[in-house]
Write a structure and sequence with these properties.
heterodimer, A: 155 residues, mainly beta, five-stranded antiparallel sheet, 1 helix, B: 447 residues, alpha+beta, eight-stranded antiparallel sheet, four-stranded antiparallel sheet, 14 helices, 23% helix, 23% strand, globular
Amino acid sequence: MSSAVLRWVCLGLCSLVLCACASAGTTQASLDCTEDPSLADFSGQSWATSGAGTFKLRIAAASPNTPTKGDNSWTLELSDVTGAPLSDVNLQVTPFMPQHGHGTGVKAIVTPSVEPGRFVVTPVNLWMPGLWEVRLTVEHGAAVDHIVLNACIEG
Amino acid sequence: MRRFCLFAWVALGAQLGCGSEPAPVYSRAALLDPQTCSSCHPKHVQEWSGSVHAYAAVDPVFLAMNARGQRETNGALGDFCVKCHAPLAVAEGLTNDGLNLGEVASSLKGVTCYFCHNVSAVAGTHNNPLKLANDTTLRGGISNPIRNAVHASAHSPLLDRTTLDSAAFCGACHDVVNQHGVELERTLLEWKETIFNSPEPATALSCGKCHMTGSREPVANVPNAPVRQHHEHTFAGIDVALTAWPELEAQRAAILRDLNPTVIPRLCVAALDGGVRADVSLENALAGHAWPSGAAQDRDAWVELVAYRGSEILFQSGLVKDGQSLLDAPSEDLWRLGDQMRGEQGEPVHMFWEARSVESNLLPPIVTRDMGDPRFYHTVTRYYRIVQAVPDRITLKVHIRPFKPELLQSLIDSGDLSPEIQSNVPTFTLQGTELEWTPAVGFQCVK
């Protein structure tokens, strides 16, 4: 057998076996949303601006410190556009899975903190693996605005 | 060229070694015992020890039903129950009807580590068609297991929660068809219709993705073990141990944790004839199957709606004491969720071997994201007429217990079940379903 033929036989054989092993798994049931650029910042460093630009919000603290399957507890900090803390607001928090079309039966309870502009939201129930939108509605006087915090649950 | 071919053959050898490992220290006999696993995987074994997989062959309701079923069918039931509740005992030829499980070593009872991690194929859809390799290779969901001296390891898509193939593995025992062809337990069938059985990664979810919560940590208690995707082995669903058993409270807490968000309620109240009409809507939001599921013919799930005026109860539906059968409590417009088995003449029956059909009243799961599809709106609504007066408070709750009290009473009456078991059955109230309406809300909805 010539060396060229032998080379092709070896190459073909290896490719066949590599393919056989690589295809052992079949339909994947896993969404990797961990690198989704729309995910909310849980480092406490950055502020998000509400849809109409009325308010600013950051996640000041989170327990667990990254979103986790099940109940989470978040401390949110709200300010107006000048950066002044906003305490006299009605804040509603609703987790929702846009790709599935459902929320969760566990309601998020919002409690004002003693620190101006801060609110403790717990439990933020993100029970199912996948991408969650945590939808916030902020009412301050006559102003109503919305912010969405995206969270990825690996499961 | 010689070097190229040498490389090629080495690569070929390595690939052929996908499943081959050095001779392991543990024999097959040692690997059959879950305690063998606990030395390196203590967290897995601890979680499993409290699960109903571990409890499956000592569960008094299983033992009672099997005993009665064997008696009433003159043994025709055979290994129908035991091949899922103690599959290794059947595979090892230690029982063929489950009536002698008291003589079988505890290491071979229940759904054990070796049983799941040695499955090599799924040869059907129900009543345990799982095939064991009967070797010393333990299969799992980790795609690149580290070679170790104690047992051979291999990746299997059947045990990999990130593949949909793993659903067929779980469903093999969680779908049950009786000897009359009645599909009694249909969790896999139900899941197959949902958006979670999908090639689209955004919605695809296997059984294990919800029922085996993941976390990043080493999966073996050995030096230098890498961080992996560990998954919980509590297998929390609805069933619980009904006798003294390890991890009892942890198991019940895991069940409540997973049940609480499942159903989303809405209570809408409107004026009606001097009283009110209360509309209760329930959405099965987070179960990848109907709710309840599994042995839905044995489960007891129901809606409790109570209307008060002061301390007086104006109206109640589904208000029962712990352990009390809904059949024994006068209740208006009772909304009971579950399956009702029917016998040969269409009469209600409690025992699965008598079932010729099933009447189903379950909350359907999400099966489509297409708003044009009539199945898109899967919320179920019931109406309650409270015409006596306008209540000053209406409360809503959804409860579930693993077994209907009348089913257990039937087993107690036949002498197959100890009476104290009845009081050990917990009632779980889904936290997310607890709503209250008062006139201050106005004639509108609370959710």
